[in-house]
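Quick question, first post here. What does this chain look like in 3D?
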Amino acid sequence: MRPEKKNYLIGSLAVSLSAVLWGFDGIVFTPRLYNLDVSYVVFILHAIPFVVMNLLFFREYRHLRSFTLKDVAVFAMIALFGGVFGTLSIVKALFLLNFNHLSIVVLLQKLQPIFAILLAMFFLGEKAGKHFVLWAALAVFSGYFLTFGWGTPDFNTGSNTIKAALLALVAAFSFGSSTVFSKMILGKYNFVTSVFYRFGFTAIFMLFIMIGFGDFSQLQSTTSNNWLFIGIICLTTGSGTMFLYYYGLKKVRAIMATISELMFPVSALIFDYLFNGSVFTLVQWIGAAVMIFAILKLNAKPDRTEKG
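> Answer (accepted):
Ran it through. Tokens below.
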């Protein structure tokens, strides 16, 4: 196997595995924090890992001397879209529905590739060949049937459902944007540096949000069980998975990474079945199988067209 193809496969697998771990987090870990304020949850899940990173990767501050205005702007965009807007939106959407009717919220991962691909073509000059367009379209199309089966989205589950759906759209655009901006910064810095400053910028932004709109008294409301799951998330599906994701993103194009991220909704619905007893219909199982097959086809034959 040629080195470039090997790196491509490793990168795709790393991104896909990250998405699976995020799916596990969304079903098993994050619901355990439902009693806390959303902005507080997002702040604490970025602040604690960043404190730990300061102990392990303090030397990363040496890059500050060589930061350009563009570097600062891109890191700020990554933090705002991926860390602040995206995370706040998806967590709030899940909290609004009390982690029921996940199919509405999972809609976000079906639309994210559209935003990411358009932005990658505009900002990175990436092009989508026929092979990519065919299998990517099939992956996104099958995602609808994975989520809704033969039916249509059910917006009659309460007034919060519409709010959750709108927040899901915000998260879709935000995470798609973050993928593209992250790819831009990875062209200059390694994945450790990129994750370090992503969490740093996000923690700072969230601190200002907490000062202006948050409630620090939530610290007193955080139970021992909450702290247990906060610790688990910070070490595994939070910062740990982000290192794995950025490692993979460094090796693949942004439009390929966002398709691999479709493993998030696949895994989320499977974990929802395993842990919560949510039953799939035959059509949903077929949709999941087709999506996985399409992702594998994309991974097996990377597009030759790199840049315009």
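Residues 304-308 have pLDDT under 50 and may be disordered.
Residues 69-96 form the longest helix (28 residues).
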